[in-house]
Protein 1
Amino acid sequence: MALVFLVDGRMFPRFKVLDMLKIFWLLGLIFFACFVGTTLAQAQNQADSPIIIKVAGKAEILAQGRRLKAREGQILAPGQSIQLIGGGEVRLSTSNGKIKVKVFDDTIVKFDGQVEANSQPWSPPTSQYEKTSTTPSSHKAPQFVVPVGKLEVQVEPGQELRVVCPLIMAAVRGTLFTVNVSGDGTSRVETLDGRVATYGRNGEIHLTSSGQSSQVTARAYVS
């Protein structure tokens, strides 16, 4: 049995029915594989994205030019920011609980998702940072950006994280630290437990242990 098409009164054989069924089966298999791949990728993105577990005060999510009221249980997707307006506290946590973030008064935090661990966080590029970074280029880590305000971040051992401020970046693995960014961009990282590596825009590198801090102003790097 053949499948024919009628064009200008003439019959043109094309494919046998069995061949057509094979093609439909193959297309269905490809579609299913794409669907499964997309679903798994979305699930992984959600697993890596922080979840709002507490909101005390007025907090909003900034997404694609819109402001949405922040609520407990919401996921902060890559590219979205959360802003705590006035006093209060917002707590974020990854689904596995390995990264926990406390957001304090008048703070804005953006979640960048997974980024290359040795990529340049600032623009224009700072060549010194690229030269001093020893992390393999294929390695990725979650990244938060703090233009202004204060965070307290807890990272469990084995989990990596980058926190980028206007003048300094903290790269951590298994530690507890705070980040404080003032209105003029002055950035301060204080280590409460473990060790934190901080990088300045001009390539400065400092390793701070418990009870130590690093601060960068527009004029100087103070450790």
Protein 2
Amino acid sequence: MLLMDDDDAPVLHFLPSLFILKHGGQACQRSYNDYSTRVRNGHRPSILSAASPMITASTSISLPVNFSLWRTIYSHGWCSLPPFSVDKQAGSLRRMLALSGGTTALCNLSEGRTKILVRIRSATRLSKRETNEVKRLIGESLRLGEDFSEFYRETSRYSRFRWIGKTGSGRLLRAPTVFEDVVKMMCTTNCSWSLTESMVGNLTRRLGEKLDGSYGFPSPQALAGVSESYIRRSIRAGYRSPYLVEFARAVASGTLDVESWRHSPLSTEALFEKVTSVKGIGPYAAGNILRLLGRYDYLALDSWVRKKFYEVHHRGRKVSDSTIERHYASFGKWRGLFFWLDMTKDWYAHKFPF
């Protein structure tokens, strides 16, 4: 596959230093500079696939105890943000995955009796290592390797929360990478959900790889390689634009290792401080990011959950944030997860709640 822009000029999504190291020479510096100028002027990258047909393969992943694919998919709004998409008619979750060797795979997930069924489409035949990487990335997104047994024991102690274990709820869908989760979370702050969908859609269509009509999420290098003005103009990210570029450049250069956050030995409080040290991430966004890292100590209050809490527990009457905090304090380290499931309980009566 050859990466091209709209005017058939090669697209080189590398930071300048990496590009020069790989290709060398002043001519390559000029090529990179020319491309950077073209991107700033609004040219959208795409991928031209070879004429050969896509190759289809299948694999499966064993289900953990107390797991529901659909309760995980619809645990929050990530399933409606690309590269995730739900095919309600086929009953599947679709996702493009970028593999470490450069291969791109389109995956469709559906639920079997004892396994998650995965249909994979790619331009080249996947090796066993690549297939295993697909399974690993799906497992990361669906939280298949996390032990929720302690959480389910806690839910069984309360009659109003026993539905959680019975329905296999509790796992929150996340991206294969922390980088993607953080970028998306930045796009949820101080705006409507429709604007979040617009920004994330623009990011994937303009900066993500394209394969067979689908787009992937942009890599840190792709996002780092464009200017703040491009993000403002083409992604419509507003005040978030400098934060997105600065974050992507820190990750792409290796200055910031966000992927280590999923297995960090830091206390939750220390990790919260580290997350909020990223410009553009405040307490609300950090609390939600921590949930996707498996830390549930924070409620991550925003206008939507506040209003929902008023409706569920106070007949619509407004109360203070401290009142909401006290309501869930007895759930200890799981309080953020109890809170979120309490606020979204009505979703679980439907296979496709939105």
Protein 3
Amino acid sequence: MEPNIKALIDKGLYSDAQTALREQLVEKQKEFGPDEPQVAALQLQLGDFLFMCGSSIEAEKVYEDLISANADTGKNTLFVVNAYRSIAKMYVDQGNFTAAQQKFDSALKLIEQLDEPGRHLLTYSLKIDRAELYRAQGSLEKAEKDYDSLLKSTSQETRDTDVADLLVRLGNLYVQWNKYERAEEKYHEALERLIPYLLPDEPAAMAALQSLAVLYLRQGEGDKSTGLYLKLFDWLDKHQKTIAPVARTHMELALANIYDQRGISKDAEQWYLTALESMKGVLAEQFDFASAHQDLGELYRKQGKTKEAKEHLQEAMEAKGRAFGVQHPGVAAIQANLAELYSKQGENDKAIELLTNAVDTFRTSLGSEHQTVVELSERLRQIQASKS
């Protein structure tokens, strides 16, 4: 990725980065033609970026263009495999499991033609994706078999973080299966693997910690759930350990979310505000900043504190707009919630404006027949009717 585009992403200017990527792709297509590696690499980057930003329909078109451009040439197989994989993951998110399975099968078949050094790693990643597909489908025995097979295929050279990631995924599977003791066992195994590392700075450790906290919460052991994070904060303070501010913010937000789910509003509010304060001195990731405001706004909304709810939801909407552009589905989701608050206060003009924008954005990213679009369109019609 070009340094100027990476700089835009690092600053959270995702809309500008998307524009720059599109412009660069057009230039490379003119310079090299449609089936050269430089073009395929950029197409994959653009597709992945659009997917991350919530523009699923546009992302799928970019991936399919990449696949079509190389279908008859046999070139850029590695990029084509990744395009198939990305479309499959998109279909999983959308609940279109049959189509996802077809794309995974196409990717695995193409991998057999590869002799690049990355072949083993890509096969490994695709098998993880396939196991997640089985889990999403409810085919839990198939998913367990795949995860067990992947764990057995690890060696002494396999990074502890990769093994821990597999253990967390297997733990998540057991939670879905209501096998809580086995899930807890896998989460603890993952954390044991990561003891040599500074826990909060390691994403795999964070995943294990959060999964174990959610498991305790699901089992009705809320004190154990919050206790995991409180003990870790105590440990860090006692040993005078400094961790990345973003990692600490993630922990503060996780703790706030758990208190929120437990219905302990006072402590949830305190930790949301603590997380927001932590972000002030950091080049905070805009999405985290927006999420903290959004969660706090939702907490205030549930408490009936309309003024505070609107204030924080507005902050969240603006932060996500700056990061991803105003047409992002995340912005639309906040607009829909804000519209309800304005409607309840009788400010129907503002509610209609926000909800119209939300419907337009969701229609563009999800299609007119999607349930979200249908439900929000009906709600918009109701508010418009109440005015007349």
